[in-house]
Amino acid sequence: RAASRRLLPSCCVLLRAASIFTALAGATSKLLDASHPDNIENRQVLLAAAGEMGATGGQLLMLAEDTEVDIKVQESLVAMAKAVASATAALVSNARNVADKCDDEALQNQVIVAAKQTALATQSLIACTKVLAPTIDSHLCQEQLIEACKMVAGAVEKIVLAAQAACGDDDALHDLGAAATAVTEALNLLIVQIKKGVQMDNIAQYDEACEAILAATDRLFSAMGNAQEMVKQAKILAEATSSLVNAIKREAQDERDHDARKRLLDAAKALADATSKMVEAAKIAAKNPNDDEAQEQLRLAAEHLR
């Protein structure tokens, strides 16, 4: 029975993985079918298939614990993209109302076409968000998603210009303008989240690592005279500093400014070097548990990490 209980979590993970792989295979098949040159499927189907594949891939990454982006950040991005879609739907509805009040067929068609282009740009944004959310800590992915936001913004501007040229009804144009402003506001919120959400997540990771380092060093200092406990805390400290070094290196990879990148890499190297010295001091203390000088050297090495 005990063995069965131990195996249960692993079985659940395997079943979950099998389910996700099946869904991913289906989403991939849909995407390939929708993107085939001989297929007459419209673009909405293609974008929906891309979004489904991105969402399923994100689930697989989370199951494998191979994503650095917190699930809350991902969910927030998708929720904000959906808020843009809701605002865009209202704008498209207002655009149709404007088109109905237009007597010139050519101008009316321009409004309708602009509305369709806005809807397609929004669908692209939703698909991109689902695909890129699990890897939004990458600067390149952030740029791609912001570019998708800009495409929606450009499409909204075209709707407004087409409506103003096609319709003289002040009330209809006022409603359309208000709807366009709502889309712009939703887009701005999404862009801020793209730029700041991951940064806040990184800050949380930094804070967690720094707290772990401070706690481990405090315990190490309190254990003076107990070599075994000092070495134990040194190992915990090494793990915490290693996590912080990796976080700094990840930030450096996405940093475009040369000087800022160099400062980050220098800081990571300095912390890594100090950690190596502390680990060596811990090894010496472990071999010489009754050597007060070895313990003092370990304490000094750990102090350099604070």
What would you say this structure looks like, in words?
This protein has 306 residues and is mainly α. Helices cover 86% and strands 0% of the residues. The protein has nine helices and no strands. The protein has helices at residues 2-35, 43-63, 71-100, 105-132, 139-166, 170-222, 227-254, 258-287, 292-303. Residues 1-18, 34-41 and 60-67 have low confidence and may be disordered.
Q: How many distinct beta strands?
A: 0
What amount of the residues lies in strands? Answer: under 5%
* Structure class: mainly alpha
Q: What share of residues is helical?
A: over 70%
Main beta sheet: none
- In whole angstroms, the N-to-C terminal distance is 47 Å
What integer value in Å does the Rg equal? 28 Å
Shape: rod-shaped
Q: How do the helices and strands follow one another from N- to C-terminus?
A: HHHHHHHHH
Q: Count up the helices.
A: 9
Low-confidence stretches: 1-18, 34-41, 60-67
Average pLDDT: 76
Oligomer: single chain
Brief rundown of the structure:
The chain is mainly α and 306 residues long. The protein is 86% helix and 0% strand. α3 runs antiparallel to α4, α3 packs parallel to α5 (139-166) and α3 runs antiparallel to α6.
